[in-house]
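Appendix C: a fully annotated inverse folding record. The material below is reproduced so that readers can follow the format used throughout the book. The structure is listed first as tokens, followed by the designed sequence.
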């Protein structure tokens, strides 16, 4: 439970054997309030996160919200603009971002973090365990093989993102190698598992 009495759905380590895809339907709180809570829980569990943002113009405001979330909590994070992507415990990047060929220090840690990702290219420059898809970003097929957990966050106010999430749910529900959960905020902003 957090300070407001909300049940924390990201409180457990990702389950072994297959990717867990968690859908978060934001009804009462904006992304700027929800994302830092989930990222803080991720770091508490000694995990790394990649936040893929469908709208590149939202990366800086989200980064600012993470920096100022709570005075007593520090969420170390960065963006591709900040450099040293592989060192960031939380990396925020645009959905269409390609790793820069001239990234000067993305060598050893990047290669080691992707050593177990089969033959597919590594989708996480920072070796993240968990992928957060926000602002309409969608997980790719290689993400389902690489990440132990994927969190898709969408607001009720964004009809297009909500429909994308519903379509993604239907598509992924057909696969038996994934575990899907759907979380929705109640009238008080607490998370309730709906599916």
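Designed amino acids, in order:
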């Amino acid at each position: 439970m957090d300070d407001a009495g909300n049940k924390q759905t990201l409180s457990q380590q990702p389950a072994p054997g297959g990717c867990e895809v968690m859908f978060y339907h934001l009804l009462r709180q904006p992304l700027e309030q929800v994302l830092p809570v989930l990222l803080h829980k991720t770091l508490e569990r000694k995990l790394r996160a990649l936040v893929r943002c469908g709208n590149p113009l939202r990366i800086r405001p989200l980064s600012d919200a993470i920096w100022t979330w709570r005075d007593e909590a520090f969420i170390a994070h960065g963006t591709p603009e900040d450099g040293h992507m592989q060192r960031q415990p939380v990396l925020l990047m645009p959905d269409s971002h390609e790793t820069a060929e001239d990234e000067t220090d993305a060598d050893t840690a990047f290669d080691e973090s992707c050593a177990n990702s089969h033959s597919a290219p590594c989708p996480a420059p920072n070796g993240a365990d968990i992928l957060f898809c926000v602002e309409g970003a969608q997980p790719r097929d290689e993400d389902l093989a690489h990440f132990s957990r994927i969190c898709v966050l969408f607001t009720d106010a964004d009809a297009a993102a909500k429909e994308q999430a519903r379509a993604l749910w239907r598509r992924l529900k057909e696969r038996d190698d994934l575990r899907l959960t759907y979380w929705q905020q109640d009238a008080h902003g607490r998370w309730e598992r709906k599916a």
